[in-house]
Amino acid sequence: MQKRNLSFWQMWNLSFGFFGVQIAYALQSANISRIFATLGADPHTLSFFWVLPPLMGMIVQPIVGAMSDKTWCKWGRRKPYLYVGALVAIIVMALLPNAGSFNMTVKAALAFGAIMLMLLDTSINMAMQPFKMMVGDMVNEEQKTEAYSIQSLLCNAGSLVGYLFPYIFTWMGVKNIAPEGMIPDSVTWSFYIGAAILILCVLYTGAKVKEMDPEEYAAFHGIKEEVKEEKSNLIELLFHAPKAFWQIGLVQFFSWFAFLYMWTYTTGGIAENVWGTIETSSAEYQAAGDWTGVLFAVQAVGSILWALVLPRIKGTKFAYSLSLVLGAVGFISTYFIHDQYMLFVSFLLIGCAWAAMLAMPFAMLTNSLSGKSMGSYLGLFNCTICLPQIVASLVGGLILGFVGGEVVGGIQTGQISMLVVAGVSLLLGAVAVFGIKTKR
Fold this sequence. Notes:
Radius of gyration: 21 Å
CATH superfamily of the largest domain: MFS general substrate transporter like domains
Number of domains: 2
Helix content: over 70%
Order of helices and strands: HHHHHHHHHHHHHHHHHEEH
């Protein structure tokens, strides 16, 4: 069967719902620590709440992938899981920011918030995975880099909106402070509007995209009848995974290891390096915290711009490696910068790596797969995103003890050094890219 080319707008429609999903994910990433701290969580225990997202991703996405590989119904193959995930997500997004409004004790409110966080991340993962699978299912090998770059662009545009929502609502006059134990209205309304955009985006993709029927899918991917009838579980699939699965997974390890340290140590690092403080209760430290959100938004802008450039660079591996090198330069440069505005350059470069991480691995992996177990392999591949974050969180304190400065008042100085560690990790990933073999 001739593998037809899709128009730009057909590829856009395939991924448009990702814009709404990523708004929800950005709201979670940027506000969860703030929500739990407001509810009364001890700052020293906040990191434990961050173990839930990657753990849920490792559990949910392989299951969704394996189940959707076997799902053929009138609503589609991947879309039913997209609808269920989005529905649960919007319900949880309405409940989570109200965890302090139900007259519960602090412990009960924290427990309720933790359950909502688990459900939110589970549902976001469930809604996110079908978009990656549909591109793998319906786009030919020549267009996959472009298709995943479009997805990366929409993903980063959603991140930008999600990161800035609370600031926008505060600027519009919505209250940014609240009584003790309550979540500010600016955050609550961000979640409400984010939920509304999520469901509208998902419904748009659902209406515009028609998935292939089993016969058309088998012809498109060259799957023979006897192969279609073979049964295999996730463990067997791992044993028979193409070499590219593990080779790209190694690059993923170094990449996501690096970004976990960005999310964890940027505030503390720039507070000391730019504002000259490590005192978490000081106005300067809080200013650094606000600026972190701005820098993450700048990173999203850099990702959007670089996602437009990526398909035009000849050589997928070269483009992937170059992007990681640029990100490494961005991370390492933060160590030498003491001006808050100069950090824009660093985070624009970091955005180049982020754009590639969202597009290149999936384009390269799906080109090495036959299509028979596309969803299962993409679900398993998500573990190469989650596992390095868990490892990085477990060894982060140990590494900080080696590369950081002295401990003052119980606070480790030199946290900016962890962004240098992140840069070195990206450089290792850039080298590992050239070991990838994507032919089946």
